[in-house]
């Protein structure tokens, strides 16, 4: 089965709630850059770099050279970054709700 980047992106956006959370991602990045939302840079930058990699014409394994295998690197990147980005968005939404309620600290256990 041959995948093109557009088809890969269509599959990625089918991830539960991805489209609805796109504006939240931009809001999260904006507040993170301002220093208001505190999280590690890797939790924000890595997923965004992954998305840029998938939509860029540059590939580690070009689709033209190795048609099926060439799409696997994009699929692997999407498989890692979409869930990571959605997890960070969920944490951001929790943080945002706490800010509105005036809650400044909370102990949270990470579920794996």
Automatic annotation (TrEMBL):
Listed GO CC annotations: endomembrane system
Keywords: Membrane, Transmembrane, Transmembrane helix
InterPro entries named in the record: DUF1232
Presence of the UniProt keyword Cell division in the record: no
Membrane topology category: Multi-pass membrane protein
Listed Pfam families: DUF1232
Protein name per the record: DUF1232 domain-containing protein
Species for this entry: Chryseobacterium taklimakanense
